[in-house]
């Protein structure tokens, strides 16, 4: 099999990322040499690749579905929002300035060449490439400079599926309307639809899908059911109720309760997914001080804007709640930006994040953080809590440790990283909780501190749990989509003569 396919969506969070991951896993299980591709991603959830760059975490997950290590080729353009109006631009894994929504338009012509050439190179190295769109192709105000949806599809002649989330309501209108607002040349590449997150009897939906095909001339290639056991994170989205994952019942008498502060510019919030994979560990995102009451572990996750998110902590009263939690001897963990907030001060002399100056931290750890102009990227390894660990780093902050600070992590060369102050811990490393041994030692410490009758599982493997989720996605693709039609699209492209909707000349 040789070819490519683009998965577009009626909206953001329609299911593009997980569908691409499922398609990639399905093909990989058949022995196909497949790779993922997302021309442009907007996310603060990123990873460091083996080639030393930075890409969206969703593309790293899709790479894992293909049995591949993450590469900058899978996501050549990454936008990391720093505010509602500005984003840092990462091109081929490296920071390449900042843009506003308007100024970014001026860069897109050059970036279209970047993404199309990257895709061409990727297709030369792999038999199949499954591409993911961004947002929705129905954003016609952005079509003239689009590089991720139909702009990419037209440039690379990609057959395109449109996926819609029926859980949101109005999915038939969303699918029809997405097609109808596109110009005829774009419509010619839309080959079919997929319905995501369906609950109930599919027979009730069939008449609507049949009418949709009569109206558009395009089939729905399948309806993916809502799968409550699916918790794998796609992008930056969080559960509507704040819960993370679906943990099994505890092995002991008690649950451990983890409160993760949902910062306004949270980054790599998926760091806590590994905690939610443990039996008896309840993980919830919180945004109010009262929600920390009774928590056994409080986590301050990463942040794209440490200084402003620290100010938000104080404005909301969460800073006082975190201080009270820590001073009561209960465990607090800071990761990357959250670690920086726990220190004495954040010094930003170059104005990397905010106006140049020194900003007081929460003072729970004996460490200062100084922002360097260049971003620190890496895939380090070492030991922590007596266990061998690996992780990845994406940050501007450089720690300046106090003389009495015990390290949380010790690198192979003896370099200290992070701080372990007993009840309060901090690290710049993302992915640390994915190390099974470290996670168990941390949870044992939390249970001992709180006196919970909690027993840590000795068999939970986060890597295995993630692999099982990818296999579940592939199972859903294989069981509920027309895989023969998918294979034909990948190899032969969109069929010719597809109807334009509305008919040409209609008002």
TrEMBL record:
Pathway: Cofactor biosynthesis; adenosylcobalamin biosynthesis. Keywords: Cobalamin biosynthesis, Glutamine amidotransferase. The active site is at residues 336, 430. Residues 257-437 form the CobB/CobQ-like glutamine amidotransferase domain. Residues 6-231 form the CobQ/CobB/MinD/ParA nucleotide binding domain. It comes from the Bacteria. SUPFAM superfamilies: Class I glutamine amidotransferase-like, P-loop containing nucleoside triphosphate hydrolases. InterPro entries: Class_I_gatase-like, CobQ/CobB/MinD/ParA_Nub-bd_dom, CobQ_GATase1, CobQ_N, CobQ_synth, GATase_3, P-loop_NTPase. Pfam families: CbiA, GATase_3. Belongs to the CobB/CobQ family. CobQ subfamily. Catalyzes amidations at positions B, D, E, and G on adenosylcobyrinic A,C-diamide. NH(2) groups are provided by glutamine, and one molecule of ATP is hydrogenolyzed for each amidation. This is Cobyric acid synthase. It comes from Actinomycetospora endophytica.
